[in-house]
Amino acid sequence: MKKDSLIKGTLILAMAALVARMLGIFQRVPLEHMLSKEGLASFTVSNNLYLTLLIVATGGIPSAISKMVSERYALGRQQEAQRIYKAALLFGLVTGLILSTLLYVFAEQLAVSQDLPDAVFAIRAIAPTLLLFPLIAMMRGYFQGRQLMMAGGLSQIMEQIMRVVVGVGLAILVLAWGWGDQLAAAAASFGNFFGAIGAILVMVWYAVKLRRTDKLEMDNWPAESEAAKTIALQKAEASRIPFRAIYREIFSISIPIVVTAITVQLIYMVDNYLLMKLRAGVYSYNQAIEILADFGGKAQSIAGIPPILAIALSTSIIPVISSAFSVRNMSEVNRQTSLVMRIVLFTGIPAALTLAVLAYSVTGLLFTGPQGSGIVAALTAGTIFQATMMISNSVLSGLGRPRLAMYNTLIGIGLKLVASFVLAPIFGIYGLIAASTLCFIFITWFNLQSIRTYVQFNVLGRRWMPYMAAVLLSMAAGWGVDKGLRWLLEGFELPARLAYLISLIVAGVVIGGLYLGLLILLRVVTPEDVKTFPGPLRKLFAKLFRLTGRAAV
């Protein structure tokens, strides 16, 4: 099986994550129409709890496995990598059993702690999913270490398709039977279990396929060859490595990664909790429930789109940097670090700001109306620094410095808590979002300072001001077009969703065209940058360069 390059692997994971996110929004849209605010709040609480526990149980270990496996293969120690894989699978099985049991037993206490006692049904409905997902995560980590991203990407798509179709279908049936909103929310949550079944079937298929490929490769070596002798010797040595030694190494790497990986989901959980606790003087109980539903059902769904590429990059960059760093190829480490930072700047930041400035029309198109669009805009804009935080965390992990990322993250989370208690009683949900954005900014800054002690990377150099001008001018134009078109279309008495769709399409074209044009005209993108782009982008920028009389390569 052919390995995926950084760009190809990232695009595979990004496309899979984008499809998964779109399917996730597709699930939220019918649920918002079907469930009351209380039912939607219960689903939000259970889903956030599920995602948080999943990251705690598996978030750092797949990344640790990916790093360990990629290093072993770079050093020619394949059999040791296989031993690590077996230990990880055993851990996934045991963890899944323990975690699902604990969640089911303590579901009532968890629901009461968030002032939503009826959410107990939705929380218990996700417990069976945790039987399978730790195992799936271990397998994804191994494939990432082998730099085979397609397995994880396709399993993610299958997971979301099954989760959405079954979850929404079960919720419709429960409501049709008259069992009420809370059981319908539980039925939607139970769809996660069927998503896990779909995902693990895909992973098993890839595992069988990869084993056959590896066996065929080994069988082609003559028994007396040096390669065959080396493999036999490695197999004997790897079999003597105790699992406890492997787990010691896994946990030494994964615990810091868990702290960094859980940051975003933990912050969302903290915001859910603090919103209900600090609402006095800002919101009534019913207002807080409605805002919680908008925050979880709308804002988090849309705000999850811009960091998709950053999530994919943060996953694919760890084995690439680990492999180069393990053989002390520092020129490759510097190049890959600069490249990954540049990709985030050119794509992630404009994506986040585009959704933020068009939040009114996006929310109105996807949901029952534009209510909550201010929350969507604020949370989405903050994902700029969420993306840079994720990438810088992964670079530090690839450099073998996950503890630095963990310490920086803990400082940022402490700042988040302090700022939340100061701002939330004054500004409500916007104070909580502002505190989260401050957290991401500080973690990013601390991480970049740490990285510079090991890597001499260069992102834009002297091109920062032209870059900011390109971003801000294109966003301002898009906001004006969207607002103007919505005002203009009111006189045509079009259906609201059609008006929002037209405004989004036109404004999106304006933003995209102006942004790309300014990148060229202001000389933000250089011919050297274009050489690192995927083929379709290279062709696009070559045409843009020719229009301005410049050569792309």
SSE inventory with pairings:
Elements: H1 6-34, H2 37-58, H3 61-74, H4 78-105, H5 107-113, H6 120-125, H7 133-145, H8 149-176, H9 181-219, H10 226-239, H11 243-261, H12 263-277, H13 285-303, H14 308-326, H15 330-357, H16 359-366, H17 373-398, H18 402-427, H19 429-451, H20 464-489, H21 496-521, H22 527-531, H23 535-547
Helix pairs in contact: 1-8, 1-13, 1-14, 2-9, 2-12, 2-13, 3-4, 3-7, 3-11, 3-14, 4-7, 4-10, 7-9, 8-9, 11-17, 11-18, 12-13, 12-18, 12-19, 13-17, 14-15, 14-17, 15-17, 15-20, 16-17, 16-21, 17-18, 17-19, 18-19, 20-21
Radius of gyration, in angstroms, nearest whole number: 24 Å
From the helix content, strand content and strand pairing, which structural class follows? mainly alpha
Annotation field: number of helices: 23
Helical proportion? Answer: over 70%
How is the main sheet built?
none
How would you describe this protein?
- With 553 residues, this protein is mainly α.
- 82% of the residues lie in helices and 0% in strands.
- The chain contains 23 helices and no strands.
- α8 packs antiparallel against α9.
